[in-house]
Amino acid sequence: MDVKQVMRDYFTDLGAAAADPARKVAWCTSVGPAEILRALGFEVYFPENHGALLGATRASADTIPVANAAGYSPEICSYLTSDIGACIKGSTPLTRSYGLAEAPRPDVLVYCTNQCKDVMHWFAWYARRWQVPLLGIHPPTHLPEVTAEHIADVAAQYRRLIGQLEAIAGRRLDPQALEQALARSRQATDLWAQVLHTARARPAPLSFFDGTIHMGPIVVLRGTEVAIDYYRALLADLRAKVEAGAGAVPGERLRIYWEGMPVWGRLRHLSELFARNRAAVVASTYCNSWIFADFDPADPLPSMARAYLSIFINRDDDWKQRYIERLVEEFAIDGVLFHAARTCPNNSNSSYGLPRRLSARGIPSIVVDGDLCDLRCFSDEQSTTLIEAFLETL
Ligand code: SF4
Fold first, then answer.
1. What are the backbone dihedrals phi and psi of residue 112, each rounded to the nearest 5 degrees, phi first?
2. pLDDT above 90 covers what percent of the chain?
3. pLDDT tens-digit readout, 118-136
4. How far is the CA of 29 from the centre of ligand 1 (A)?
5. Residue to mutate, 64, 78, 113, 116, ligand 1, most ligand atoms under 8 Å from C-beta
6. Crossing angle (nearest 10°) for helices 175-197 and 225-244
7. Geometric angle at alpha carbon 76, from 372 and 351, rounded to 5°
8. Which atom of ligand 1 is nearest to the CA of 343?
9. Closest by alpha carbon to 381, among 368, 363, 394?
10. What's the pLDDT tens digit per position in 167-205?
11. CB contact set of 349 (below 8 Å; sequence gap of 6+)
């Protein structure tokens, strides 16, 4: 299966849903409760995916200043500013890529602040602009451990959310539909985990840069059969590559962990830079963020609460350190690259001493300044010099 075709089908259908008064569209944050929305029959759109597309196509350079002029600071999430600027400007890469005149208009906006509070401000802008209901989940954050109290809190918020969504959907939630959506999400996420785990092989059959492309379906299509089919086929393909000893980076010499957000507008540049130095970026926090091993269709709301509370970005630094150390071991990593994304302190983990603490445990690292979408914060020259010098020392 071709990822481009999978994404094209997804967006084509979303465009049709937005134009059909009988179908309802919900916007959801990337690690929000998508399974509840799908079980209620909503078509689900993820604005962060649009932010990534704006970054990857470098359209952000034109749209971020538009949002800045509308009062949204250059220092806040550049997914947010890229996306809001695109809406004000009336342009989107969805037109060129998928034939959509605009992002599909929502019937409801649903966010969860398990990742950051920027998503709340982001969705609130659309709620005001289009007079659309705005619903939010506000979980406890930055947790050393996920307790029964945390889970009960979020499960109760889900129950309240379901009541509000039922009124918009015009139907009651069928418990079986939720179990099925969760079962499909669990299957897809397990396959996605296995896909990423193939990079434990030496040479690794896929890199972080490949992963940022292949992750599209697990973000926007979890809860559907399409995602399951896509990752089943991809896994078979990668296993065949492992068998054949085919690596993503020819002559793989070093193995790197990428911590933090991708630099969407420089994926190819960075991929080529690492490949030139025979270094494979074999694991990342970012791609792993859509592994939800806690989903349990037999216990839907509490298991969703646990899964969405337990994500890396929602944990304290000690937990994050243990997590990275475990992956360094499992993937035989030689060094860690921390991407300090200027506009996403929420998903940049180099500011509170973590690289030093890893170094004290014998894990070398570097910190590269950059951003997810705002390329004014990223220097090709400086990052190239820094990365090549780092690889040299390993
Ligand atoms: S986690 Fe970072 S990139 Fe994602 S929405 Fe929040 S601020 Fe933006």
1. -135, 130
2. 100
3. 999 999 999 999 999 999 9
4. 10
5. 116
6. 20
7. 70
8. 7
9. 368
10. 999 999 999 999 999 999 999 999 999 999 999 999 999
11. 259, 260, 285, 317, 320, 338
Q: How many CB atoms lie under 10 A from the CB of residue 15?
A: 20
Do residues 122 and 32 make contact, with C-beta atoms less than 8 angstroms apart?
no
Of 28, 60, 75, 79, the residue with max ligand 1 atoms within 8 A of its CB, to mutate for a pocket test, comes to 79
Q: Nearest Cα to 325, choosing from 283, 290, 291, 287?
A: 283
- 200: which residues sit within 8 A by CB, 6+ positions away? 282, 330, 331, 332
What's the pLDDT at 16? Answer: 96
| Residues within a 6 A CB radius of ligand 1 | 48, 77, 79, 115-116, 118-119, 261, 344, 346-347, 372
The residue to mutate among 31, 46, 64, 118, having the most atoms of ligand 1 within 8 angstroms of its beta carbon, is: 118
Q: What is the 110 CA–ligand 1 centroid distance (Å)?
A: 15
Nearest-CA residue for atom 2 of ligand 1:
344
Sign of CA dihedral 36, 139, 348, 370: positive
| pLDDT tens track for 234-255 | 999 999 999 999 999 999 999 9
CA of 274 to the centre of ligand 1 (A): 25
Q: Where are the strands (E) in 300-362, listed by range?
A: 335-341
Do residues 173 and 247 touch, judged by C-beta distance below 8 A? no
The residue whose C-alpha atom lies closest to atom 8 belonging to ligand 1 is 77
Pairwise CA distance, residues 166 & 325, whole Å: 43
Paired tokens of 375: 């390329």
Domains defined along the chain, listed by start: 3-174 (3.40.50.11890), 178-393 (3.40.50.11900)
Ligand 1 pocket: which of 27, 72, 76, 77 to mutate (most atoms within 8 A of CB): 77
